[in-house]
Amino acid sequence: MKNLFTTVLFMLPICIFAQNTDYKVSSYKDEGFKAPNTHYIGEAWLNGVLQADDETDFNITKATFKANSTLDWHKHSTSQVLIYVDGEGYYQERGKAPVILKAGDVIKCDKETEHWHASTKDSDVTYLAIYGGGQPTTWTEVVTQEYYDSVADQLKD
């Protein structure tokens, strides 16, 4: 009985001061949901890690694209930062040459700059996209499989 009493006295403060569960916690490690096949070719998963609100004026979305998948040309009303966390992907802004970005790379795309990004032909890619909470993405032109393949051929060497 004495041991039970000691145990209860020891456990009571732990229960009272246990971690508060009122926090809203998300994880960029969650796969997210399979995106509807709109404005891209291939397979993509999206995880809305953080949504803009009255106090936070930006979103963070984790995007994972299977190899040989691409977004269409688009632009945002705010700047966008892409942080590549796994794999390799293509990135191109209108009027500039495409490049390959790899895990660890960070690139900023200025607001209203038309661009597209994708996985490479042979590698899945995962990145965190940080962008303003304002207007939704404006989709401007389809990236065709032929164009994507030509970029892949160009960057192969």
From TrEMBL:
Alphabetical keyword list: Dioxygenase, Oxidoreductase
CDD domains: cupin_HNL-like
Stored Pfam families: Cupin_2
Start and end residues of each Cupin type-2 domain: 64-131
Gene Ontology molecular function, alphabetical: dioxygenase activity
Gene3D superfamilies (UniProt xref): Jelly Rolls
InterPro entries: Cupin_2, HNL-like_cupin, RmlC-like_jellyroll, RmlC_Cupin_sf
Name by which UniProt lists this protein: Quercetin dioxygenase-like cupin family protein
Species, as recorded: Maribacter caenipelagi
